[in-house]
Amino acid sequence: MECVRRLTGRLSSQIVAKKCAASLICILLLVPFSTSSLHGQELEFDGLTMNLGSLPRLSYAKTRSISPENFTGEKGKGGMATEGTGKRAARELDQGWKVSPSVRIKAGQTFVMADIQASGAIQHIWMTPTGNNRLTILRIYWDGEKEPSVECPVGDFFACGMGRYVQVTSLAVCVNPKSGFNCYWMMPFRKRCKVTMTNIDAKAMVLYYQIDYTLTHIPEDMAYFHAQFRRVNPLAHKDVYTILDGVKGQGHYVGTYMTWGSNSPGWWGEGEIKFYMDGDKEFPTICGTGTEDYFCGSYGFSKRQGKGYQEFNTPYAGMPQVIMDEKQPRFGLYRWHIMDPIRFEKDLKVTMQALGWQSGGRYLPLQDDLSSVAFWYQVEPHAPFPELPDKDSLKIKQ
Q1: Residue 36, in any domain of the structure
Q2: In whole angstroms, what is the distance from residue 91 CA to residue 175 CA?
Q3: Torsion angle in degrees (nearest 10) through CA of 41, 44, 50, 53
């Protein structure tokens, strides 16, 4: 009987050992698949929402760039030009040595900067245009649309809209010496992206540019980027300036750039901004408390000591440009709603009052020279834009 117990014990131990060995083999076989699955999960990142926290994440997104050295952005096709604006300077060096760093756009000509037929997003635009930046019109079209979703003089699009260079330092836009325009608005597209530049001036201009983008899948909940320019000069007495109107569909408003030419002496920034959304009629849902308040300043943007205006740049708001002139002082202001977008579900209208002061502590309705760029995201299709002002109506007196 003791022998039987010993034999049974040995058999049980052998069976247990074999089961353990089999289990270990299964675990070892599963480890590579498990690791692969984990890596696959990590690579589900689409490469779109870039910040310091997302930088370590891997993705299958493909980085591409379009410039005069690679008009199509194709892989392995950069720096191949044998003709271009740099050909003479590179005559002793030949191909591969900055032969085509820029393009020349003739008077009245529209140049196609990019035509991408894929799914992805623009993540950065750099350019430096010569000439009058009020007379150079940037347009961007999404997914084959006939009417642009972005239509704006190039200087105003980059918050530098009065024909003079000024440094702008913000999250969405940076303008760097001497005229380096940079944009960091993310601009997703699902089928196609077309970017054009139109020179409406009477003389040719030169454009250096680079459009950095990624090819990747675009999530269903991402809307399309829009930018619209307007100008009224002068504003009618007791009229209200319209920054944006006619927007239909769901989206969110993300920024305002304004140039303000003061046609009256004294302070000009008491007016309120108003956001009418989702059926608002006479009264808006959001009403500001003053122009300088909306642009995140206070008390007339005054310098701490002495008289005059204080220019400023911050990530989300600024007044980087003050041009003092006896006839018409001019101001450039931006406000980015990056952390506080104005969300709407059906429609949106945005207006700004122009108010100063007169005797007796009374408000004075102003007849100023106002222009603006509204920035927003929305589902397509978008409503038609108002016609862009003609060349003479776009110009700023220097």
Answers
A1: no
A2: 32
A3: -10
What CATH number is associated with residue 218? 2.60.120.1390
Tell me the C-alpha distance between 69 and 87, whole Å: 12
Sequence-distant (≥ 6) Cβ neighbours of residue 314 within 8 angstroms: 170, 296
Peptide bond into 234 cis (omega under 30): yes
| Residue 67: domain span | 46-222
Q: Answer yes or no: do 169 and 206 share one domain.
A: yes
Each residue's pLDDT tens digit, 158-215:
999 998 899 999 999 999 999 999 999 999 999 999 999 999 999 999 999 999 999 9
φ/ψ of residue 156, rounded to 5: -65, -35
What does pTM read for this prediction? 0.89
Token pair, residue 320, equals 């980087």
Distances from the Cα of 27 to the Cα of 20, 31, 32, 34, angstroms: 10, 6, 9, 10
Residue 94 and residue 234 in one domain: no
- Beta pairing class for 224-232 and 150-153: parallel
Tell whether 197 and 332 lie within a shared domain.
no
